[in-house]
Amino acid sequence: MQITDYTRNHLIETSELSLSLDGEAIDNVIYLLRDTRDRGGRIFFLGVGGSAANASHAANDFRKIAGIECYSPTDNVAELTARINDDGWDTCYANLLLASRLSAADTVFILSVGGGNVKANISVNLVESLRVAKAVGASIAGIVGRDGGFTAKMADACVIIPTISSETITAHTESFQAIVWHLIVSHPLLKRNEMKWERTNMAGNEQSFSIATV
Predict the structure, then answer these.
(1) 15-53, pLDDT tens digit by residue?
(2) Taking every annotated instance into account, which residue ranges of this chain make up the domain SIS (predicted)?
């Protein structure tokens, strides 16, 4: 069976995107997060939709691998839904950050396809969170698509995923959020704990499994 044109084109676009990423922008995020850890700060990962799932994953990775205190507000479903119900969608993240006593030591890290846009009424909750971060002097980082939106305008360090095709912006941006943050958390300047499969002796592991299942 031949590979479909769509599959081939998607893989070609993925390859082109990998080669067009701004390495200096990625390193700037790494330095910012290193400084956050050095001063005892926390990272709050924020996203909407698929990017919210990425935020949860990233919070786990940076806490476990880089040893940084991290949070993703969408992991606390009870509080998040209470704030949406009582205060409204636009301020749900911002009010959570205020309740968490966000400070100048901390970093707000945005994962988003568009980066937030008030005029278009898209991801306004991210915009309000960024305003809170600026007001208290917290650092701002982001991995975003399109033109970067409000995040790119406010960020101290930001990686913009280039647009290769207008038909695959969301798919590539959300995919490359994971690629970029995995690069960042694996960087020697940040990584403090080895990941499981990188320190596992596969041959010995398979042998132990065989003995255990006999």
Answers:
(1) 999 999 999 999 999 999 999 999 999 999 999 999 999
(2) 33-194
What pLDDT, in 10s, does the model give residues 43-87? 999 999 999 999 999 999 999 999 999 999 999 999 999 999 999
Question: Number of structural domains, the chain?
Answer: 1
Where do runs of H (alpha helix) occur along 21-123? 23-38, 50-64, 77-87, 92-99
The single-letter DSSP state of residue 3 is P
SS (H, E, C) 111-133: EECCCCECCCCECHHHHHHHHHH
Q: Which long-range contacts (C-beta less than 8 Å, at least 24 apart) are formed by 168-175?
A: 168/10, 168/13, 169/113, 169/145, 170/50, 170/113, 170/145, 171/10, 172/13, 172/14, 172/17, 172/145, 173/113, 173/144, 173/145, 173/146, 174/50, 174/51, 174/54, 174/113, 175/14
3 state SS of 109: strand
Q: Which domain holds residue 192?
A: 5-213
| Cα separations in angstroms, 139 against 73, 115, 133, 194 | 17, 16, 7, 27
pTM (predicted TM-score):
0.91
| Length of the chain (residues) | 214
